[in-house]
Amino acid sequence: ELHSFSFVVLHLFQLHKADKVLNVAAMLRPFVEFHTQNTKLRLEGCLAALTGELNLNALMNFFNPKLSGWESLVEPFQVTATIDQMPNESLYTISSHDHINVNLTGTLLSEIARIEYSSRTRETKVHRVIDNCVPGILL
Q1: What does the DSSP 8-state code read for residue 102?
Q2: pLDDT tens digit string along 68-98?
Q3: How far apart are the C-alpha atoms of 45 and 87, rounded to whole Å?
Q4: What is the Cα–Cα distance from 30 to 27, expressed in whole angstroms?
């Protein structure tokens, strides 16, 4: 039983002015954070015939750079994930009896639009800041 855990997804970005990139090195900043509470995991059996259930309360926050603070992205909800694995088939389910409320703001959508999805660009940026990188996930 793990009561709670959290992690932060970091975002690599460059400062822009009038759609022209300034000569500023890429920087890291928080993007989203994921929290769970009341996490319970039950597993039974062996790898060939495994059954289990994961229950937790989850929420997500978005770092709003205009406010320099966190704001709610996904409001708290309870989720259940199950696994039933047999030698020739596996069944996975994820469900929630709660409504999942997602808060989409103009700032969040703007930040998502600024993400460069080219893996080539991402690799170049990561190499520039890898020495200063803190543990986390980079977008």
Answers
A1: B
A2: 899 999 999 999 999 999 888 999 999 999 9
A3: 12
A4: 10
Tokens 């199950």 sit on residue? 82
Q: What is the rounded CA–CA span in Å between residue 135 and residue 138?
A: 9
DSSP letter at 97 equals S
Report the distance separating Cα 103 and Cα 76, nearest Å: 12
Among 100, 137, 102, which residue's Cα sits nearest to residue 122? Answer: 137
For residues 117 and 21, give the distance between their C-alpha atoms in angstroms, rounded to a whole number: 17
The dihedral built from the CA positions of residue 102, 106, 107 and 112, taken in this order, carries a sign that is positive
Q: Which is it for the CA torsion 60, 64, 70, 71, positive or negative? A: negative
Return the residue matching tokens 């978005």: 62
Q: What is the pLDDT of residues 7-50, one digit of tens each?
A: 888 877 665 554 455 544 457 788 999 999 999 999 999 878 89
Task: Compute the Cα dihedral for 21, 24, 25, 27 and give only its sign.
Answer: negative
